[in-house]
Amino acid sequence: MKIATETAHIGLEWDTRTGAVTVPIYQTATFRHPGLGQSTGYDYSRSGNPTRQALEEGIARLEGGARGFAYASGMAAITNLLFLFQRGDHLVVTEDLYGGTYRLFEKIFPQYGLEFTYVDTTDLEAVKEAIRPTTRALFVESLTNPLLKVADIGALSAICRERGLLCIVDNTFLTPYLLRSFDLGADITIYSGSKYLAGHNDTVCGLVAVKDPVLAEKVYFHQNSAGAILGPQDSWLTIRGMKTLSVRLDRQQENAGKIADWLRNHPLVQKVYYPGFAEHPGHDILKRDGKGFGAMISFEVKEPAMVERLLLRTKLISFAESLGGVETLMTFPVVQTHADIEPEKRLKLGINDLLLRLSVGIEDAQDLIDDLDQAFSSEG
Ligand SMILES: *Cc1c(COP(=O)(O)O)cnc(C)c1O
């Protein structure tokens, strides 16, 4: 079945007792045992909860993996994946990484003996050169933030297979609706479900899918041992959000295409990053492997003073962090999402004080364009 059908049906056949069309919220910590040495399959909600399980099976099916896992946040999911590695292990990582992931990798895991090298993962030679005898995995963002670089997951997975590395893909910006990384050879996908999957800026959650059943057992052991699981209410909200993933993204992508075109022709904009443009370096990869170009746009204005004007004078577009929800949000990466990256490093990546990032929502495209237009042309 196609993703649009799979998402709409998450949890649908769960409740065989009453036939409830949505999965119930099993707000319980523990489960009664029918007899000595017997279990209903559920013992304690950290180890397994039916509402969470419906979500976990949902993400596994969308990805085509053996198992899925739901965590309290995207960062909790990434932390859990790092338990697969040991002191002395090395990972090769996308350089323009999500700021929170960079902070986790730089400020916390080196204490436990993990090493990270950051490279431009759109450069296959740079990835190969960064691999050491102790390298165990590649951690790659399929579409990066905020510069929207596109990784060739098929080619990267082939390098990983050849060198015996795990290929872990943070596919938050694309979702399985737009790119299925297991089909391209990856081993693990991770999501901040807080973004497009839940999709309404109302839940923080993390999701992981694992292709191989043996590796999935290990990840389950870590999930249950460390315990950063997603609660039943938030699992339910995430399922409810995911049901409309395809229609939301169709609309968001359509809007993003129109806004990107409009920005490109605006005299006060000097650069637009949007993979839907034919001249974007990642355009052909997404055209070949994916089902769209996403709904994120980054752009540089001509002078720093324009930044504040746009952030504060847009009326429909909110100045807020996060992305992927139905409402259009704009953020200033230098100060918000990428504040934890050293200034020189940020500049080298192209994240400067002229750069704004738009997460395009499902509103009417013309209303959004009119809003940007009035903010651009306001005085002072
Ligand atoms: C938001 C985000 C994360 C972290 O997820 P949280 O749910 O905020 O903990 C990780 N990776 C990417 C690409 C993100 O956008």
UniProtKB/TrEMBL annotation:
Signal peptide: none annotated. SUPFAM superfamilies: PLP-dependent transferases (SSF53383). Keywords: Aminotransferase, Pyridoxal phosphate, Transferase. It comes from the Bacteria. Its cofactor is pyridoxal 5'-phosphate. It holds the Pfam family Cys_Met_Meta_PP. GO terms for molecular function: transaminase activity. Belongs to the trans-sulfuration enzymes family. This is PLP-dependent aspartate aminotransferase family protein.
